[in-house]
From TrEMBL:
Key words, A-Z: Membrane, Transmembrane, Transmembrane helix
InterPro entries assigned to the protein according to its UniProt record, in alphabetical order: DUF2254_membrane
TM regions (residue ranges): 27-54, 74-100, 121-140, 146-169
Source domain of life: Bacteria
Protein name: DUF2254 domain-containing protein
Pfam family, one: DUF2254
Amino acid sequence: MLIKLLPRPIRKYLHMTKRQRKHEAQLNLWVMPTIYIAGTLVLVSIPLLLDLYLDLPTMTTGFFNASASNTGTLVSVLVSGTLLLAAYTLNSILVVLTSFSSEYSPRMLFNFISDRTTQHILGLFYGSFVFMLVSFLFVTNSSRDYFTAVPIACTLVTLAAVIGFAIFVNHTTTWMQMHNIVEAMKTESERIIQSTLIDELEPYRSDEPGYTFEDYTGYTCKASSSGYVQLINFVDMIKQAKEDDVVVRMDAKAGDFVLKGNRLFSYRGPGAQGVQIEKYSKLIQIGHKRSEIQDVDMSMNKLSEIAIKSIGNDDPTSAINTFHQMADLMINIDASTTLHPYLQDEDEQTRVVYNTVTFSTYLHEGFGRIRHYTQKDYLLIVEMIQVFIRMTDSISEKNFPIIWEFAQDTILHISYSAFFRADRIRLLDYLKQLADVTGHKMDYYELERHLQPN
């Protein structure tokens, strides 16, 4: 009952799962500064207790003592100075980041805000301002003639804020370099893959379907509202399916947009008639925005978006660097996950069937979008084929046909007249290497005839 009286944003956080709450907190600026401000209120009490209650000025020499008027003047100047420093810094950085985001990706601003270094330094700015403000209030309302700990503490805190300012400027200029942005995005994507595909799903995966109760009548559950599938609690779903003795087949995956009335999942088994749909519906979170918590597709989308924007900004170097990071991410996915759809309980009985994206999906989500935006800059296609050759040294052979078919389809949709002679020879050389590695030597000659019709 009391929860309904709280503001809507707070109620939203209370209804989230722990995993969602942690993810959303990282995307907001108020969490870390709140922690710093709370710590500051504790920290500022130390010099105030030393001066106002333990009478520290009487125990020190005159060199360390400052009169009340001088202390008040010092603290008032530091209050306005720290506030001005924080405001000027944030204003300048936001202007630059907004312009930078419009050129490359609107997600950059959110990535910068969610960066831990950014949040810690902003917390330091807010904390230092609160430290000065509280000190100023106590000093101006005190009847003491001298202070020792307060002016020293305020000076040290201001020095910390100045150092934080220098670190923040250096951090921002370093972070805004395109290769660092792409590297940070790839690292975040690897963390999502580790937590979702490996830590959460891999222990339950099986390559054999086992008995999936196909001879029982199936029932369906439809979405009660429209939105993006943000989170699926697979562990609890497996436990609930075991308790009900059913097999759940997911029709929607994390990141999918579902309309009200669309199928979310179906279930069948000996206990299907007694299933309480609400127990399973609570395990599937649907919201108004797409979330990265379990959405591995979005990892490739973010990187491909950077490459596309780089192409539009005539920045092929950044686009090529993005190709390399995308290839590294795909190798990571191929090496660390099996992508089998069957999730089993401890008795090796299939309980959930979840069709995750395949290697082909990742390839088309990433490079498939990019090739549509290369326009006449077909040198990037040459670089893309070169990246595929490097990938074949690290990925499993079962994915070789997927890479070759993608490369073949790409080349067949390019006019031979788009290349200069030297570039055409270079591309054919790379295609021959790729054909040899992937076992498609005969298919290479079709591409050669396409690029050299005469």
